[in-house]
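Minutes, project check-in
Item: structure for the 303-residue chain
Input as provided by the requester:
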Amino acid sequence: MKLIIDTDPGIDDAIAIALASRLAQIDMVALTTVFGNTFVRQSSRNARYIVDLLGLDVPVAEGAALPYGADSYTPSANVHGPEGLGDIQTVPEIGENASETAAELLVRLAATYPKQLVVCAIGPLTNIADALKLDPSFAANLGQLVIMGGAFEVPGNITPHAEANIFHDPLAADQVFASGLPILMVGLNATLQTLLTAQDFTRLGEASPETGGFLDQISKFYLGFYRSVGVAAGCPMHDAAAVLACVWPERFRTKTIGLRVSLDADTIGATIADVSRPPVQVATGMDGDWAVAKLMARITELP
């Protein structure tokens, strides 16, 4: 499987990228970056740092800096830390971004690998909407878009109605759901059925001193955030769950339905059923124990 991860690293993004690097079914061909957990320049820097840490030879193409219709954006540093990687204050600038924008790279590689390329979008969907605008044939060329985002008929995690990735650019997300792209949405319905504990991260650090140790280090901030909102047992593996769905969709319970994103002030960012829209697959549940076991097994193989 040719895979691009569209990402805003981000602690759980780092976990997801590390997992993807150890799945034999995945040929990771690029990372594209977007604002979200961090400013986009931080997303790109963090992505290049993670690629170097994992020993990957893949380009990092920088994408959107702002949501549609916005002239500013402020990340939630209380969730992922001021630089996006927990308590780490200085992240090295390693390498350079690709010369293409994220949208340009997405369009080019979808055309290069027609119906073969999978994009796993684990941040706001602005780059995907940009790719659709740049080349309308992107929707026909792409094999699949797997989204970590949304909350279907369940409460959100940034507002009572909305999941964070969709909330951060609801207009772009709504355009993506209207596009006819082959979509699997892996949202809170599924990802909240997983749990990574502090003991899990300790095990990763012991088994994989370099990569697992890095994930153990940055997880402490993330676990602290979850404790602050009343989740003492650990943290969900949001983005890594979407990576697993790219390879093992059968482990996810799904419903086929059209979706729109609310742009109304009171419910902005909510993902709502709309039978007039092209049908997409919505994950309504998953095998959480299997997902955690798969992640632990693969990441402990890293140096």
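Outcome recorded: The two ends are 24 Å apart (CA to CA).
No further action items on this chain.
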